[in-house]
Structure formats: C-alpha cells, structure tokens
Amino acid sequence: MGCKQSAPETNTRSLTAEAAMADKLPEPAPPDPTDPRLPLDPRQVFKLKKSWKGIKRCMESTGVEMFIRMFRSNTDIKRLFAKFAHLKTEEEMRVDEVLEKHATTVMATVDEAMNNIDNVDFVLTLLKHRGNYHKKIPGFTSDLFWAIEVPFLEAVKITLGDRYSDNMDRIYRITIKFVLKTLVEGYDTSNAVS
Predict the structure, then answer these.
(1) In this predicted model, what pLDDT tens digit does every residue of 148-164 receive, in sequence order?
(2) Where are the domains of the chain?
(3) Which of 48, 180, 188, 78 lies closest to 132, judged by CA?
(4) Summary mean pLDDT of the chain
(5) By the 8 A CB rule, do 62 and 156 touch?
C-alpha cells in the first residue's frame, strides 16, 4: 500500500525536475538562411526536396506527361523535335521510346537541380550550361523554355496527387520559375558557364 502512495509523489517530483530543466534548455538555432540567389526559404527547400522524392520514383512518366501537355498547348514546338515530331496522338507519344528517353534526360537535369537546390552555385552552373546547350538546336529561342512551365506543374501535380497541396504548388511555381529563368540566362549569355 505504501508503494502506491509514494509512486505518484516520486513521479510528480521527477516531472517537476524535468520541467525545470526544460525551461533552462536553449531554443534550437534557426536554420541557416538560404543563398539570397535562391528564391526559397530553408523550410521551402526542405519541403521541396522531400516532395521531389515522389517525383523521382516516377520521373519517366512525369517527363512524358510534361512533354505531352506542352505539345498539346504549343503544337508549333513539336516541330523542333525531329525524332518524334511524326507522333500524332497522345497514345503514340506515351509509348514512344525516343520521347521517353528525351523526357527522362530533361527530368534528369531537373532532378539534379532539385537534389542540389541548396547548392546554388552548382545549380546555376548546371542550368546555365544546359541553357547554353540549346543554342545548337535550329529554331530554338530562349523564350521557348517558358513553354514547359505550366506542363511541368501539371505533370508534377498529377504525379503527386493529394500530396500536391496549395503550399507545394507555391513552392513548385517559385522553383520552376527559378529554373527556367536560369536556363534563359544560360542561353542568352554568349559565354555561359561550361
């Protein structure tokens, strides 16, 4: 009987001691600010990288969906892609290995940027180099990069499903604008970073 009565008292004392110690603990340091060239705060970077893992598992299908949506809304762009310009229907595009390979290559660049988004120097170099590479494509102009913005967002939304919240929409919109702006800079710069 005595043990039952003393147990609550001991627990109360230890809880009081723990509470006192907790009051003395310093607040955790805030996360380091992101590079000012990156338009995301540390929390957004964390959420983007976590969310991107869902896209990474479905990069091929997300990339193909992105290109199908771009061709649907910008039929003239398709002529720049000689290897799959002959594809007429969305069904043909979904099963075409050449389109899938190209979509996967594009998504691999985006993947590399997303996985390293907190290393701004690396991402800027990567994207400017890829932007500059597009100068070799006959008929391509830097403003065509922007044609992928909405299709990218739509494809990501489809892939993530209910994980694509309003907050993630804002983060992906900010991020794709940063990516596309940097690609354009690489294209428009005569001596882009190699």
Answers:
(1) 999 999 999 999 999 99
(2) 42-188
(3) 188
(4) 89
(5) yes
Distance CA 184, CA 131 (A): 6
Contact by Cβ (8 Å): 122, 35: no
Radius of gyration of the chain (CA): 24
**What is the spatial distance between Cα 136 and Cα 95, in angstroms, rounded to a whole number?**
27
Q: Which residues are CB-neighbours of 51 under 8 A, at least 6 positions away?
A: 160, 163, 168, 171, 172
- Confidence class of residue 61 from pLDDT cuts 50, 70 and 90? very high
Q: What stretches of 26-96 show up as alpha helix (H) in DSSP? A: 42-56, 59-73, 90-95
Assess contact for 192 and 150: CB atoms under 8 A.
Answer: no
Confidence bin at 85 (pLDDT 50/70/90): confident
Homologous superfamily, domain 42-188 = Globins (1.10.490.10)
Q: Which amino acid is at 23?
A: D
